[in-house]
Structures are given as C-alpha cells and as structure tokens.
Design goal:
The protein is an all-alpha fold. It has 17 helices and no strands. 38% of the residues are buried.
Length: 479
C-alpha cells in the first residue's frame, strides 16, 4: 500500500494556500470602475489629449490671423472680405470641433467600459483556465484507461491503479467546475462576462449571436454540462468498482463488465468531448468556429493526461513502489507522449493553415488577435508542445531515461496550460493580459488540490491489480 508522504502533503497544502492568496489578490486588485481603468491606462490617454491640443492650437491660429488682418487693414474691402472669410472659417470650425470632441468622448467612454469588463474578467478567466485544464487532465487519463480496457492491452494493467488515482480528481474538479459555470451563467457577482452570449444587451445588438440562441442559451447549456460531467463520473465510478471487485472474483466477469461499459463510454466520450469543447471554450469567441476544434482540444488534454500518468508513475517508482513497472512501460508511455504531441501539432497546423490561407475575415480574426496580442504564448506553445518533445523524445533510448521523460513531461504540461491560456484569454481579456497573481495563484491552487486528491486516492487500494487477466503479461512486459 502506498503511504502519502508528509512532505508531499505539506507541499500540496502550501500550494493551495499560496493559490488562494494569489486568487484573492487578483480579484481584490481588479479595477472596480472606469476611474480605476483611467489610472491604469493613463498612457493611452495621450492620444486624445494630443488631438484636443491640436484643435485648440488651430483655433488660436485663426484668432491670431484675425487680429493681424484687423491691424493691417483699415476699411479696405479686401480686409473686410478677408475678415468675413476668416469668421466663416472659424464659425465652421467650432461646431465641427465640438461634435468631434463629443464623439471622441463617447467613444473613449465606451472603450473604457470595454476595458473595464476585460480587466474584471481577468481573475475569473485565470481561474477558469486552471480549473478546466486540471479537470481535462483527469478526463484524458480516464479516456486513456478506457482505451486500454477496450483494446485488452497486455502491457498496461500494472499502471491501472495510477490511472484510477489520477481520475479520482475528476469528481472534485467536476463539482468546482459546475459551480463556476452556474455562477458565470447567473452573474452572481455581476462582473463575470466570460461568455458574451450570456449578455442580453450584447445579444440584442448582435444578429450572429441571435441566430445561435437556440443552442447557446443558459438552461440548455448548463443541462448539457451536467449530462457530460455526470456521465464521465459514472463511468469512472463503475469502472473502478469493477476493477476492485475483479481482485476478489473467481472468474473474469467483472473484467468483462468493464470491457462493455468502457466501449459504451468511449462512444459517449467522443461525442460529449466535441460538444464540451464547443460549449466551454469555442463559444467564448462566439462569432468564430472551427470543425477541427473538438479534435484539437482532445489532443491537448489527452497528451496532458498521458504525461501525468508517466510523471506520477515515475514518482512512485522513485519512492520504491510499482516494482513491476520497468523501463519498457515508461518507454511506451513516452511513445504516446511523443505520438500525441505530433498529432496535436498536425491539428494545430491544419486548423491554422486552412483558416489563414482562406483569409475569410470572420475566421482569420481569431488568429490575427492571437498573433498580434499573444505572440509569445501563441508561438511559444508550438515550441513547447512540438519542437521540444520531438527533439527530445524521438530517440528511443531517451524514452527510457527517467530524467528525460520528467523534463519533457514538465514542458509538455506547461505547454498545454499555455495552449488553454491561448484558447480562453484572448476572447475574455483581450490585449490586457499578463502573467500575474491571478494566473500563478490559480495554477498553484489547482496543482496543490490535484496532488492532494490524487495521492490521497492512491493510498486507498493496493497499487497492483491482482486478478486482471493480463496482469502476468504486464508484469513481464519487455520491449
């Protein structure tokens, strides 16, 4: 039986405490009104001040010319005509200038309100990115576990308890995530505007969103979320229950039950995963859509789930547990890390290239925003999720080295957190993003919670399934 290290437990609590402090400060420091935004964006007001100064200088020039003409002319007709023309010019300038100032003031106020919304979204969005990222890591591990069951894989049963430990986070994450969705939809705190299609004022002025209200409405949206989360958690509960029951069974009946429910779950999963990616991520950019998006999101969290399985396995192995896990098991996990990273890159490039090449304004805006405002994280994600893994893990021998797999796995997980950051933040925060207390605090909190829940679950049952039909093959697996 595994014993939760006191140091690791303390570390998880420290992360959660620091995370709560960071999240709290992020909400506290967010601007509360337009005046706060004006202070933050003081530098951006120079353009407006310069425009006003130019208009004032123009008026002064007209007055100076008028005085000069008055001095130089007595009662000549030319002077009178000149004065009359200047008066007309001045008369025309004043109304235009006043209208321009009014328009600029209204536009500036609207801009400040928009920026206020984005800045108030920032702590919510940072929390959302970390929350959904760790939720989907556990879901990715669950999908990988179901695939092993249906494939009747002979290499992986020694890793089943690790996979089940990681999926133990799914119920906890689902509760937090569902509560967050309810708070978002009901605008409990009044400042959360992550999903603009929930704003009635915006919908009233946007015909594109109006055409989608049959699907994008809060009651239907939250019901779908409940169905997804309940379905995933039911499979997680019954598959684990059957796996544990198989240890005490005299036949393979519970293994066969797991095979059947795993096959049904994978059908349910592939449908709900696609819809989930539309509902929870793509609908943030309500005007934009991509037919590849469901697969793209899947590749991102699937490789993250597999990577987490590898890292937890290596940690337990380093502490003297999982004695039946050998370098061949690690090698196979690293192969999946490598292969799904390449698959993610294929989907990233396919989605980007087709939209960029077609250059349809409604579609290409999605990538223009990210390239112009999120240049570093946008292309940095490609380096972290493709170039780094392919250069490190393409070598067969490297896939068996613990330090290489840990290094590659750490970069992959950080890279896919950045990937989710890129998917969510531009549509909610816009150009006013930076990695601050909200982002770091949210990441710390959910990492600490993840560590605590996963490693607590691993202490509940033996780390080796006893009666799995393929357990002996898995123990002696060599590649």
């Amino acid at each position: 039986m595994y014993t939760f290290s006191s140091k690791l437990k303390t570390f998880s609590f420290i992360l959660m405490i620091l995370g709560i402090l960071g999240i709290g400060y992020g909400f506290f420091s967010a601007p509360k009104n337009i005046e706060d935004v004006e202070k933050i964006l003081a530098a951006e007001n120079h353009g407006h001040e310069a425009t006003h100064a130019t208009a004032t200088e123009h008026k002064a020039v007209v007055e100076e010319v008028t005085k000069t003409v008055e001095v130089q002319s007595d009662t000549t007709t030319v002077a009178k005509d000149t004065l009359a023309k200047i008066a007309v010019v001045e008369h025309q300038i004043e109304p235009k200038h006043e209208a321009k100032v009014i328009d600029e003031h209204a536009e500036h106020t609207a801009h400040l309100k928009h920026v206020l919304t984005q800045m108030q979204n920032k702590p919510w969005s940072a929390f959302y990115v970390a929350c959904i990222f760790f939720l989907l890591i556990s879901l990715g591990a669950l999908a990988f576990y179901a695939i092993q069951q249906v494939a009747q894989a002979g290499w992986s049963p020694v890793l089943f308890r690790v996979m089940q430990g990681i999926t133990a986070y799914l119920p906890v994450a689902s509760i937090i995530f569902f509560v967050f969705l309810i708070l978002t939809g009901m605008h409990v705190f009044g400042t959360n505007n992550i999903f603009i299609w929930m704003d009635k004022d915006i919908v009233a002025e946007d015909k594109i969103i109006q055409a989608k209200t049959g699907y994008l409405n809060f009651p239907f949206w939250i019901i779908r979320a409940a169905v997804f989360l309940i379905g995933w958690n039911l499979y997680r509960y019954f598959s684990r229950k059957n796996c544990l029951a198989q240890d005490e069974s005299n036949d393979n009946s519970f293994y066969k039950k797991n095979f059947n429910i795993s096959a049904m779950f994978l059908v349910f999963f592939i449908v709900t995963e696609s819809i989930m990616s539309w509902d929870w991520i793509m609908s943030i950019d309500t005007h934009w859509f991509s037919t590849l998006f469901g697969w793209y999101v899947f590749a991102s969290f699937f490789v993250s789930g597999i990577t987490t399985i590898a890292l937890v396995t290596l940690y337990l192995k380093s502490k003297g547990y999982l004695e039946n896990v050998n370098t061949s098991h690690i090698h196979d996990l690293a192969k999946f890390m490598f292969g799904i990273s390449v698959f993610w890159t294929y989907l990233w490039f396919s989605q980007f290239m087709l939209i960029w090449y077609a250059d349809i304004p409604e579609e290409v805006t999605y990538f223009v925003t990210r390239i112009e405002m999120y240049n570093l994280p946008f292309f940095g994600a490609v380096v972290m999720n493709f170039l780094f893994p392919i250069l490190i893990l393409i070598n067969t021998d490297f896939k068996r080295l613990t330090w290489v797999v840990v290094m590659a796995g750490t970069v992959i997980l950080l890279g896919h957190y950045v990937d989710f950051f890129n998917m969510i933040m531009p549509g909610t925060v816009g150009e006013h993003w930076f990695i601050g207390f909200s982002e770091i605090g949210s990441l710390f909190f959910f990492l600490g919670l993840f560590i605590f829940v996963v490693f607590s679950a691993l202490t509940k049952v033996p780390l080796l399934p006893k009666r799995n039909p393929y357990i002996e093959e898995s123990k002696h697996f060599h590649y």
